[in-house]
Amino acid sequence: MSADGGQRPDPLGVDLTEALRRLGGAPDRRVELDADRESVERGLVQLVLTVVELLRQLMERQALRRVDQGDLSDEQVERLGTTLALLAERMEELKEQFGLSDEDLNLDLGPLGPLLPREP
To answer: Which residues pair with 6 in a beta bridge?
Structure first.
């Protein structure tokens, strides 16, 4: 609309509503989602655990770099190892509890490849 309340002509000469209708998707058309509570919860858990696993792997790599550089005392290395082992164990428990596998947590980013690197 213009400032005086009249319709402004489309500068491209395209009626978007008509174009969408021809493509089968009118702008006011609602998309129905078939999402039950259980699948939504599972998807949310999967997403959260994916982020936690990504952070766990990043922390583990950073810890290994610090150990290799000799930045940590023997006590710190021991504590770090124990903490990372407990976190990995808890992740396994959560994956089992929710019926998820490592592959479920590794999002496919298309041409970029998987989100999480494969651990040996």
So the answer is: none
Nearest CA among 80, 88, 77 for reference residue 55: 88
Interatomic CA distance for residues 8 and 27, integer angstroms:
19
Angle at the Cα of 79 from the Cα atoms of 75 and 80, rounded to 5 degrees:
115
Predicted TM-score (pTM) of this structure? 0.61
Q: Give yes or no for a contact between 50 and 115, defined as CB atoms under 8 angstroms apart.
A: yes
Model confidence over 53-110: pLDDT tens digits?
Answer: 889 889 999 999 999 999 889 999 999 999 999 999 999 999 999 999 988 888 888 8
Nearest to 55 by CA among 87, 97, 101: 87
Nearest Cα to 105, choosing from 55, 41, 53? 53
What's the CA gap between 28 and 32, in Å, rounded? 13
> 114 forms bridges with which residues in the sheet?
108
